[in-house]
Write a structure and sequence with these properties.
mainly alpha, Rossmann fold, 2 domains, 3-stranded parallel beta sheet, two-stranded parallel sheet, 13 helices, binds adenosine-5'-tetraphosphate
Length: 339
């Protein structure tokens, strides 16, 4: 059976939306983890442009953003010889499988997704301008993952509910039509699974938030990083209260720890009691030091579009047969016609 590949490493799949510059939350929650684990798996990483169009996009900017995200994936350490890196719409099987799932997923399951509720509310309170695609987003996400029979999915903590739904969809399909899909596990990073907004540490850092002081892009120069961290919300205490840091301070410490890989005890002995001014300058220096090589490599990659496009094309060609085989089986199981 196609699912059993005894001599091969387990497959992983993950993706990001090309909805603007990736931020340090995307990096610490997902991308860095992908680069670290890629050699232990058979990795497939996607740029999910079909998810991006669930909200209005400028067509030219969207296409450009796909290549920018691809360059950031590679600049952050994905090795195209090891990891497949492609754009979702290069492989039509994603939407083909998503339709089959749409027809097997109860409406109530999608209605419970908190991210849809939050995003729909942001888009338009009347819901008249909220696209149906936004509601169906988790079904497409399930198709992305199950299409490649991925064993595990490295994501940030905000995707836990969508991952649970993906598992439920796989189990439901397998029960209705016979075992077809691997039920994937969620793989969270140990530190940095949920980076919070700098302006509001009760909300996760997000690409689509408009506030200018909310997030740090992977492409921000040191001066801007310093300014943003300088403006980050802390609390009324003067220095780090290690036992009970406020949410903003806890977020800054998490960002530092995730970038530095320091242990808890190193963190405590260095930061306990440190005044916020000193904390902020250490955090911004750490971020900029880690972003500098990524930015350098990113600029080189963006200057060689021929190479970048070849990586996307070769990767898509490499993984397309896996996707085609899964769709073939799903069609066979559900009785869809093919001559
Ligand atoms: N704040 C975060 N902390 C840790 N991980 C995060 N991720 C996103 N935000 C954080 C992880 O990044 C990956 C890519 O996510 P996505 O592009 O599919 O979109 P998202 O999760 O909806 O991320 P954004 O930044 O909030 O984008 P928009 O605003 O466009 O929706 C995922 O693995 C996610 O867990």
């Amino acid at each position: 059976m196609e699912n059993r590949r005894p001599h091969m490493k387990p497959r992983i799949f993950s993706g990001m939306q090309p909805t603007g510059a990736l931020h340090i939350g995307n990096y610490l929650g997902a991308l860095r983890n992908w680069a670290e684990i890629q050699y232990d798996y058979e990795p497939i990483f996607c740029i999910v442009d079909q998810h991006a169009i669930t909200v209005p996009q400028d067509p030219k900017a969207l296409r450009e953003s796909c290549e920018q995200v691809a360059a950031l994936y590679l600049a952050a350490g994905l090795d195209p010889k090891q990891s497949a890196v492609f754009v979702q719409s290069q492989i039509p099987a994603h939407v083909e499988l998503a339709w089959i799932f749409t027809c097997t997923v109860p409406f109530g399951w999608l209605n419970r997704m908190t991210q849809f509720k939050a995003k729909a509310l942001e888009a338009d309170a009347s819901q008249d301008s909220v696209g149906t695609g936004l509601f169906l987003y988790p079904v497409l996400m399930a198709a992305d993952i199950l299409l490649y029979q991925a064993k595990a999915v490295p994501v940030g903590d905000d995707q836990s509910q969508h991952m649970e739904l993906t598992r439920n969809i796989a189990q439901r399909f397998n029960k209705l039509y016979g075992k077809t899909f691997i039920v994937p596990e969620t793989k969270l990073p140990t530190v940095g699974a949920r980076i919070m907004g700098l302006d509001d540490p009760t909300k996760k850092m997000s690409k689509s938030t408009d506030s200018p002081n909310h997030s740090i892009s992977l492409l921000d120069p040191p001066g801007r990083v310093k300014k943003l961290i300088g403006r980050a919300v802390t609390d009324s205490q003067p220095a780090v209260n290690w036992a009970e840091p406020g949410a903003g301070v806890a977020n800054l410490l998490t960002i530092f720890q995730a970038f530095s890989d320091w242990t808890d005890s190193q963190m405590q002995s260095h930061f306990a009691g440190m005044r916020y001014g000193a904390l902020k300058s250490e955090v911004s220096e750490m971020i900029s030091a880690k972003l500098e090589p990524i930015q350098r490599r990113y600029n080189e990659l963006m200057d060689d579009r021929t190479h970048l496009r070849a990586v996307l094309r070769d990767s898509a060609e490499r993984v397309a047969p896996i996707a085609a085989e899964t769709v073939r089986r799903a069609k066979e199981r559900t009785g869809l016609y093919s001559a």
